[in-house]
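YM 10:42: Cytochrome c domain-containing protein sequence, as discussed on the call
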Amino acid sequence: MLGCAGEGARATTEALPCGPSEGNAAMFEALSPSCAGCHGAGASRPFFASVVAFEDLLAYDERYVVAGDPEASALVAMLEGRGTGAYPQMPLAGDDFATLAARGETAIGMDAIRAWITSLPPPDPSRSGPDREAVATRRLSADEVINAIEVALGQAPSAGVPPLLRVDGMAPLSPDSPSGIDYNDGQRRQVYLMLGGPSYLQQRPPEGAWSPSSLLTLTQLAQGACSLAVERSEPLFFVHATRDARLPEAEPDVRRNLEHLYRRFLHTPPDAAEIDALFTQVYAPAEATSPRAAWTDVCTALIRDPLFVTF
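YM 10:58: structure's back
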């Protein structure tokens, strides 16, 4: 059995160090290749976002790890495919971790994990305050983007899986959703994945940062949702101007509505320069073709704003 080097365990290059940070960091590094894909930064359970997250959310949470008693630890049970509750095994699909480890497909085996839990030291008392390495700003997940658009456009946020955003086009659908909703399910699942959404059943992690493809998908999704909101003349969208307001007569009302939308979408008061840029660079050029197209472009621009798509 592998354990802490120098404490009765066989000291090998695979033995874990014994200090609080060293031993936990080594276990974090050993488990990350198998676990970080679904439990990294941005995941609903980001156990492997950092060593600090690993310690705070997993190693020292007795719901998962009981120090000194691996057999009473839910982590061991899930890794061996005998967990109880909603998650009987990890990973969720395919063979459990212990089976993969027995075939040599993981960076660490169950004996070493048990040894780590048996000799798990108390938390490092010198660590205090926030984690300086923690991610302070991140992109919104696919579900968060969908819900944020819904709220901004005056729709009730979707409950459960999948979010069903009302758009003029192809609405995204999680690949983990039940099949048979409609014949477009395959394409809708692809839209969701291209938006950066995960498929935990396929062990596909969420996208951690915006990419060219996910930004393109966001733009297309925003255009569809905004176009539909404008056509429906959503009451929370048009507060100070109508969807068919024409320039130059309606410019004061349009500018007031732009300020309203800026506050609603980005949750911060704009300054005069920002409203002027939104009016002159986005609204006015498109209004010559159609006021409705202009409002759609404004809405799309606000959804693409970094303040909207990050948290």
